[in-house]
Amino acid sequence: MRNRIGWAAMVLGLAALLQATWIPLGIPEPGRPNLVFLVVATVAFLGSLEEGLAWAVGGGLWLDLFSGGPLGVSALALLAVVPLAHGLSRPVFRGRLVMPAAVAAGGTLLMEGVRGILLAVLQYPVDPGYALRQVIGPEILWNTLGMLALYPALRRLRPRPERPELGG
After folding, report:
1. Whole-structure pTM over 0.85, yes or no?
2. 166 located within any domain
3. Is residue 163 part of a domain?
4. Total domain count, the chain
């Protein structure tokens, strides 16, 4: 159990660190992929609901620590994505890229919408039109492309559940 928690903290911390340091250097504005979102959405899609929720809290806290924004906003925004990703993870879709791509697009819109609402409630200046054009739109594209690349690799790393034997 401790090994899994340490592994999750390391993966999420590395993703958040890359998100805050290397991604801005390598990808010009507008919008960039959100590596923590991609990892959390994939875990929620492939794993249990509880596992996805735990990864969302950890990943959100890492993002907030590196961003300098209000602590907890990213965690709450990622928590909103987990039920969507997990709910769309029916076994019939797990081998296909259509549903993970839909989770990436819809989840990005949901996450950034929740983040914008929370920031507005906390009285941070939020311009929804600008955010949609310059941040959310391009981020949806980046995250969808990122999910198409990341999902097959993470799917191979996950242990396969045992199939129940059919018989009489």
Report:
1. yes
2. no
3. no
4. 1
